[in-house]
Amino acid sequence: MGKLVLVFSLVVLGLAVTCKAATYMVGDNSGWDISTDIDTWAQDKTFAVGDVLMFQYSSSHSVDEVKKEDFDSCNTTNVLRTFTTGNTTVSLTNPGTRYFVCGNKLHCLGGMKLQVNVASNQADSPTGAPQAHPGGNISQPSSKSNNPASLIPTSAGSVYGGRDSIVMAFLGFMATLSWAVQV
Predict the structure, then answer these.
(1) Please, which residues have CB within 8 angstroms of residue 69's CB and are 6 or more apart in sequence?
(2) What pTM, to 2 d.p., does this model score?
(3) Residue with more model confidence, 122 or 164
(4) Do the beta carbons of residue 36 and residue 63 sit within 8 Å?
(5) Exposure letters 146-164 (e unless 16+ CB within 10 A, then b)
(6) What integer pLDDT is reported at residue 121 of this predicted model?
(7) CA 140 → CA 28, 32, 54, 101, 121, distances in Å?
């Protein structure tokens, strides 16, 4: 039994050191909506390969992934992918820049669009390999203002996964193991 605990502990410790993926709720509690200041929401985020974006939105919206030119002009007729379920999860699987807009062009023109600069996950890179560095933050100041009376927690409270989840799983395993030994 002691060897099993030791092996499991080493596996969990190894995962905790290398696991950095996070899940981001786009727009926090306001979600993917015309009233959400998406530029401000994304401004302080650092996205990496392995992270996940969660879009939650009403039936009057959609999420379209587009190329840069279509992002800049809010062209919603030349999309790479369209999501309409109201609850969309997008995995960030490769480094580079991704562009998302609302399928309603007027909403996109109103600021309902998201540029995500995805950095490579250094834990997955060979030692000594050069790392890609995404360009500077291109988000521009938004003309929208949020109502101070309805402040919403930042994404720090909406990030799931990564090292904390591994540690919690380990602690849960140890508590179960301790209980099993006592019984």
Answers:
(1) 75
(2) 0.60
(3) 122
(4) no
(5) eeeeeeeeebeebbeebee
(6) 75
(7) 19, 18, 23, 16, 26
Residue 25 CA, distance from chain mean position? 7
Average pLDDT, the chain: 72
Residue 34's CB: how many other CB atoms inside 10 A?
18
* CA–centroid distance for 153 within its chain: 16
Please answer whether residues 95 and 49 qualify as being in contact, where contact means their C-beta atoms are separated by less than 8 angstroms. yes
pLDDT in tens, 91-139: 999 999 999 999 999 999 999 999 999 998 765 444 444 444 444 443 3
Question: Which H, E and C letters describe the chain, residue by residue?
Answer: CHHHHHHHHHHHHHHHHHCCCCEEECCHHHCCCCCCCHHHHHHCCCEECCCEEEEECCCCCCEEEECHHHHHHCCCCCCCEEECCCEEEEECCCCEEEEEECCCHHHHHCCCEEEEEEECCHHHCCCCCCCCCCCCCCCCCCCCCCCHHHCCCCHHHCCECCHHHHHHHHHHHHHHHHHHHHC
